[in-house]
Amino acid sequence: MTNGDNRKPIIVVTGFLGSGKTTLLSNVLKYGKFANTAVIINEYGQAGLDHRLIRRIEERTRLLSGGCICCNMREDLINELKEILNEAERGRIQLDRVVIETTGLADPAPILFSILMDPVLTNRYYVDGVVCCLDAANGELHLRNNPESVKQIVTADTIIITKTDIVEKETVQEMRERLRQLNPAAIVMEAANGVIDPEIVFANSQSQMEIRRTRLEQLKTEYPDRPTPHDNGVRSMSIRFYEPLDWTAFGLWMSMLLYAHGEKMMRIKGMVDVGDSGPIVINGVQHVIHPPRHLADWNGEEKNSQIVFIMKDLEPEHLMDSLVAFQNILGSAPEISEINLDPYTKM
Questions:
Q1: Which of the pair, 173 or 283, is modelled with greater confidence?
Q2: Taking a C-beta distance cutoff of 8 angstroms, is the pair 220, 304 a contact?
Q3: CA dihedral defined by 253, 258, 264, 268, rounded to 10 degrees?
Q4: Is 239 helix (H, G, I), strand (E, B) or coil?
Q5: Is 265 within 8 Å of 314 (Cβ atoms)?
Q6: Roughly what angle, to the nearest 10 degrees, separates helices 209-222 and 108-117?
Q7: Coil, strand or helix: which one is 194?
Q8: Regarding predicted confidence, which is higher, 263 or 142?
């Protein structure tokens, strides 16, 4: 940003399902230097979860639920960005920057175009960078099977290879070589457990503006500004349990689920009430379930278990049948908050 330019930076954080976007942001936003950051989180269904996991001050974290902002929710995104400006002008919030966390299957290019094409936003904001998280354990599989993952990589200014602690060094090096082929202009960094120098995520990348502008023009030719096609075999489901769960029984159920349908379970994430003072956060991508994280308290939220499943070529009813069969040993009956047979469509 040049001297005299009072526009606020927008950082887009993208990455495929389970790549660690929310964990990364949770860690970065703990730093006092970045307290005046407004966060917009886009999730598939109405029953969003990631904004709860970030656990930030309510007025600084906004949830855009019910659709995908690279498809049919871009007007909602534009309106939210304008509302943040209005709140800053009225003195309701202190604003240094805005972070947009996309869904795991979003194409960032249409999002950037929408911001750059709105005259109000271009006078008040500038796109400071696109940060893309790539899962070290599953990244190559995603790049091979999901075109959205490739689009996220080629749009990025900074690529962060996450979960490097659970793979061999050779795997990380091979991924670096793959990324160099896909996007030689990007800065490639590594992070384990979402821990990274926050300056890397929020670094001012003004020196790369010309590179970004050229890349966006190339993307605009390759991916015109039209609704991005997604795989219609993807389903999402959110369930709740209103009584504490038996943690051992739940772990057994989840292990059986992944053994039977691991490759179809694109994402599992949730906050589980096991009767303790705080919830247990679970995260899974296909066959990989990461170590559960115990939170100290509920941060004033209602105590219940909420779990979101994103699956491919697997009907949500199969999961519900399995949960109902297990409910006696789980200690609670599941209730469906939402089943979305097309998670890209606003409900």
A1: 173
A2: no
A3: 70
A4: strand
A5: yes
A6: 110
A7: coil
A8: 142
CA distance 95 to 123: 16
Q: Cβ-count burial of 276 within 10 angstroms (0-12 exposed, 13-18 middle, 19+ buried)?
A: middle
137-171: burial string, b at 16+ Cβ within 10 Å, e else: bbbbebbeebebbbbbbbbbbbbbbbbbeebeeeb
Residue 74, CA distances (Å) to 84, 115, 117, 226, 293 in order: 15, 9, 12, 11, 33
CB 122 within 8 Å of CB 3: no
In contact, 131 and 189? CB cutoff 8 Å? no
User: pLDDT tens for residues 289-319?
Assistant: 767 878 888 877 788 898 888 787 888 888 8
Query: Which of 107, 139, 67 lies closest to 286 in space, CA to CA?
Result: 139
pTM value > 0.85: no
Q: Contact at 8 Å (CB) between 65 and 48?
A: yes
Q: How confident is the model at residue 64 (pLDDT cuts 50, 70, 90)?
A: low
Taking the C-alpha atoms of residue 174 and residue 172, their distance in angstroms, rounded to an integer, is 5
* Mean pLDDT, all residues of the chain: 79
